[in-house]
Structure formats: C-alpha cells, structure tokens
What we know:
It is a single chain. By secondary structure, the protein is mainly alpha-helical. 84% of the residues lie in helices and 0% in strands. The protein contains 22 helices and no strands. The longest helix has 36 residues, at 267-302. It is globular and about 60 Å long.
Amino acid sequence: MNLTRALGSVGGLTLASRVLGLARDMLFAQFVGANFASDAFTIAWRMPNMFRALFAEGAFSAAFIPMFNRKVADKEGAGLSAGVEFAQDALSVLLPALIVMTLLLEAFAWPATYIISGGFNGVSADKFDFAVLLSRITFPYLMLISLASLAGGILNSLHKFWVAAAAPILLNLAQIVALVFFHTHEPLLTAENQAIAVTIGGALQLAWLVQACWASKIHFKIRMPRLTPDVKRLMRLIAPAAAGAGAVQFNLLVSSALATGLLPHGSVSYIYYADRLNQLPLGLIGIGLGTVLLPTISAQLGRGADAEAMQTQNRGLELALFFSLPATVALVVCGVPIITGLFQHGHFDASDALKTGQALAAFSLGLPSYILVKVLTPGYYARSDTKTPMRFAMISIAVNLVLNLALILPLKHVGPPLATALASTVNVWLLYHTLRKRGQFEADSRLRRRVPRLAIAAVLMGIALYFVTPFVVPYLTGSILRRAGGLIVLVSAGLAVYAVGCFVTGAFVLDDIKLLTKRARQA
Length: 523
C-alpha cells in the first residue's frame, strides 16, 4: 500500500472536515463570542470530544484493529467472516456497557460538570445549571461515537480509510446548520442549539458508517453479551490504550478545569479557539498518519516483514515532520494575525483575538509532539503493547498537572497551553527512546539527513513571515473577502518560502517530485 496515497485520501477528507470545523468555530465566535455561554458549551463539549479522540481515533482502534487483522489473516477463505464474528462479540459487550455509562453520566451530570469545569470560578447557580443542561444534551454522543468507532475500525482494517475519515464532516455540517439557521440574539440559546447539534451529528456519523459496513457485506446483529477469550483480551488492551491515546485530551481537560476555576470568564474559550486551530494540522497530518499506519504496520508485522514495518514508520516520521515543522513556525510567528483574520468579528473583539493568538502560539510549540505521538504509538499497538504508551501517558499527565499549577497564575491563559505542549514533548521522547532501545525503531539515513534540513527550511519561512506580516495585518479585518484575501496572501507567502527552502537546503530534491508525479499518474 502506498503510504503517501493513503495519507492523501485520509488527509484530504480530514482537511475538509477541519475546514468545516473552522467555519463552524468562526460562526460560533460571531454569534456567541468568548463569554460564559461559550465557556459552558466548551466544557459540555470537552468530555464527548475527549471520548471521540480516545475511541474513534485512539483506544478502541488501537486494540481492535490488530486483533481484527490477525483474525482475517489467520484463516484463509474464512478470514473476513472470522473477523466479523469477533466484531459481533465485541459489539455484544460494548453496547450494554455504553448504555450503562451514558445513563450514569446523565444521572450524575452535575458532579461530572463540576469536576470538568472546576465550578466555573464561583458562577451563579442558574448559570451552572445551564452548563449541566448542555452536558446532559451532549452525553449521548459518547455512546454514538464509540459505536461508530467499531464500524470505522472494521472499514480501516479493510483499507477503506476514506469512509471513516469522511464521517466527522457530518458532525461539522450538523453544527453549521444549527448556527446558520437556528442562532438567536441570545448567546445562551445559540450555545444550547449547538449542544443539540452535537448529538444529532453523532447519530449521523453512526448511520453513515453502519451503512458503509452493510455495503461491504458486513451486517451487525444485536445479541446477548459473550465474554469470549478474544473479547476479554480486547477489554484488557482497551483500558491502557485509552490512557495512552488520550494523554493530550486528558491534559486539555486538566487545563480547562484549572482555567475555569482560576481564570476570568472567557479564558476557557481562548484556550478552546486556540486548540481548534491547532487541531487543523493535527487532524490533517497526525490523525491521518495514525489511521493509516496502525493497520499497515499490523499487517506487515503479521507476515513477519519487520524491516518493511520499520521503513513504513520512518516514512511516517518524515511526512509528519515535513508538515508539522512549518505549521509550528507559522502558528507561533503569525498566531495573533491568523486569529484576527478568522475570528475577530461579531461578539469576538480585538482583545479576544490577542489572547487567543497568544494561547495558539503556546499550543503550537507542541504541534510536532502531538503529531509524532500518532506516528510512534502504532509501533506499540501493532505489537499489542498498550501498557507502555499508557505508562508514558500517565507521566505526561503528571508533568502537565505540575506545569499547569506552576504556569497558570503567572502566564494566565497562556500557561495551560504551554504546559500541554511541554508535557506532550516529554511523552514523545519516552515513546521514541523506548522503541529505539527495544530495537523496534531506528532512524534510517534518509530520515537523519532530511530532518535538520526541514528544520532550516521552516526557520527561513518563519523569518520571511515575520517581515511580511506587518504589511498584511491591515487586510485582516473588515469584510470577509478582505480578510480571506489577507490570509491567503499570508499562507501563500509562507508556503512559497518553505518550498524554496526545502529545495535550497536539499530537504527535498527534484527526483522526489518526479517520483510523486509518477505515482500520481499510476494512481
């Protein structure tokens, strides 16, 4: 399988989803702004969003896909049916567990919201009750997206990556429709409509993936739970995988709770908007690579092609750094101008843009780390080792908590994002060092040659953007066409300088372009 082509398929759809998500956030900033209403929705959305990352993009896939692939590979002829039987057994246990969990969260929504929000810094009882209401509305999404992850895991194992990658588009469309057609002059009501749209979007995602499974001759049947040996093993693998895959999400949860408890209203929204923009390259590169690498490396190791698996992971690291290094530099240098062009209108003013841009710059320092986690963890999960990433994730969470407590008061809304970035860097170093120590990963000569050259090209781009930005800033406010034009000029200038820098430093050469062109013609 061509890694670049598969990443292009997943990444293209993920990019479409993230662009729609950016449009949704722009509308949300316009109609709601950065205030208590936006903080309340952010907190209500934080837990379902965390479960999406844990299950749809993390734990369940990490545990399920290697086991499903082995089922398919072990029995020639009956391989797919054996894999579907395993999926049926997993569903029989997963569904009742999710129903019980959802009911418990609905029943205990008040303490759950309090834990996540830290009490909203002494907000009135009426406002806190509103935040609890939003949480109750969004909690069913947890069950829907977890079931969708089962169907998505099967489709990814069959190398039908695009179907699962397209599913988040439905969630973003549901939220955009709610904002465009059901927004009001009252921010609280608009936030409530957004919470309703979250659950509707989850139902649409599940329906889309189940229909795709039916089209692939895979039908699910509801039956009594069966704790088979394979299901027990799956359950043993999921718990540590959830902790390992969710380090960034847990860190964001800690940051949100501390921000709501210790900082003024609006601080959670600054962190939220910054994180959403930071998620754009993370979703395009990191999630796309993680989605493709796990089943690919699992299949390679399953047939004993260890050298091929190591080469795949080297190319994954190379692609991750090729995209993430310039994105990091651009968001650090131009964070405030980008936020101004995207969000500064309606209820979102210049002060909000400045503070959000500062938070974005802090988040972006960890962007390579967030992405490399997605590239390195398949090296563990493909070998059914979910405990090692869990241990490293726990260390990362502890580091994040200590840094949050140390930085949140002196740096205010910049402290939590910076703590998250530094904690993620610790996690990546532990993952990389251990794989290398075990002899399961070694950077090849091509990767060692290209990484420093990519870094130089990214720095050259950052210097160019520093001098270009003052000329573009006047065009980042006003009409949407004016702001779009200013952002296009800024992004185009950065891309052009980075491309030239890559060729000047030798990070990429003409033969690479010829090879990519040849593969495109073959495809």
